[in-house]
């Protein structure tokens, strides 16, 4: 299970609507993470390095948790635990210029659940890169967010039709099949 | 300036001779780092993730500094500062499955000084990958170490003859030319 | 200017509607190629290797030209000339596991015109990979085709809104600005 | 089995000594290729594109075979057959900016025999990249050549000691173990 760009200070241009929608999906991601924990599916945080290039996950997480408002709420509820993996990405796709693919091969993972923001950028570009590398991808509609619901829905339709990515909501995912 | 794999707990098989030689080159690296600071050459730590896949530089540095003996001395004298960059690599070469190349392009760097351990593995493989990407590479003989001086010297001869990499000792490097 | 997957025997499942729409965009691509020739914009064919892994562009082009019907018409009208570049790609994106990025850097290219098929797969995935590598991308609506016009239009809207890719039709492209 | 850079017009600076040594190893490579054929080990040509960027293996092979002298003899004796694979590489390592790794995964290959020229550049850099990707590598001493035997021997010693690459001569390779 990948959690994309949910640890953030939301300091980029017009981040407000995205943050609002991200806050709404956080509970579904938290619930899905608990289900993954229960059956032993590893959780990998794939997060922007926000131009810092310092491989410093703790700083990213601390700064995200320290802020006021919904961004801090998200970060505190979803903060990575000791056992979770963490990959800092310099660009949109989690696979570009990162060790993500090596980590997934190391974990003997063939299937991915993608959650986080934003659906049309980092989630979608990580999803297509995953398909191109022959991973099977799920992208639960209630686990991803965009600036507008319409943009999210169009992106999900696109992923579904062009790459056969399943976008059924997270409660319908049958996790034991993944292990 | 790259500092390769000097932050370590030295817990791999037969690390003892390598650690001993690493301790001897630490002062030269520290002096070179001070000269880089003085002229504004950025310093990038390129360090093994030691199978942790957690992008957690602070844990790597803390564990290295906390140990007794020469490994701790090295780590404390060379620990990265706030302004330094840090790239965790999953394999030997600093360029493989990491954002190193993107970072160097972002810093508009065309020339690299390589220091650290071990000369024949991570330093040499990072050096060849750098040459293949058209960076100009210096590898000062007093800034790199191997299990034996003979192995270091043969590797340096190899880099010099096959890739035209300059291996003159660090005092002879003219840093202002790099900026 | 990239021409994607137009040299083909169209032997994949349900290729018929895609071929029909590809035939309709071939004249616009041919006209755009002539304009690129006139101002010295290099033309790069980015084409599937169709599972052959033999880097054999001539066989791909010969087989495509030798067939009856619209696939042969397309191939004969758009066959690469001596001066054109040719990159065989093993997967959807022209940038994945190919020398395309190195070639474009070698040509000192910073802007790309993407044409060919299919809009939602290879064109779109090459476009997003190009944006991630900081190329400026044009994707003229009359130079790309999908199985249905609706799918093409939705993909173009997606590229436009999420990646700011210009999709204006080819006659409106001002080529001299590219050189 | 990889055959590296043996299809060439040998038109680079000071190619003469390398060509002379390459001519001497051609019979051993031919014999090894026949043994690979006999047990079904796939043969992959990994060859420089010589700045052409046109994925045109036939032109590379034709030009190599057409020349007078030892370069033509080598090319004619070792020219790729219909069933062989062919990867054009833009730089030294066969893995950099090419589909080689994908091809090897596609062929379910975990072990590589490296032959060709030059030992200290393309062979050595392909060998280290292969080791970093967890392939097991053989580099038979009688199947690789350098500008001087001394340079070849030092490179082989280096590969052997630093990467545990077997450099026993080709007659001692037990091919059935590879399949």
Blueprint (SSEs and pairs):
4 copies of one chain form a homotetramer.
Chain A lengths: L1 E3 L11 H24 L4 E5 L8 H10 L2 H10 L6 E5 L10 H7 L4 E7 L1 H14 L3 E3 L5 E2 L3 H15 L16
Parallel strand pairs in A: 1-2, 1-4, 2-3, 4-5, 4-6
Helix pairs in contact in A: 1-3, 2-3, 5-6
In terms of quaternary structure, what is this?
homotetramer
Main beta sheet strand tally, sense and closure of chain A: 6 strands, parallel
Task: Please report the total strand number of chain A as a whole number.
Answer: 6
Computed Rg of chain A: 15 Å
Total count of helical runs of at least 4 residues of chain A = 6
What is the string of helix and strand elements of chain A?
EHEHHEHEHEEH
Mean pLDDT of chain A: 94
> Pairing-aware structural class of the strands and helices of chain A?
alpha/beta
Q: How far apart are the first and last residues' alpha carbons of chain A, in Å?
A: 11 Å
Determine the fraction of residues in helical runs of chain A and give it as a percent range: 40-55%
Beta-strand percentage range of chain A = 5-15%
Shape by Cα distribution of chain A? globular
The chain pair forming the largest interface, with residue counts per chain, is: A-B, 23 and 23 residues
Ranges of chain A with pLDDT <50 over ≥5 residues? none
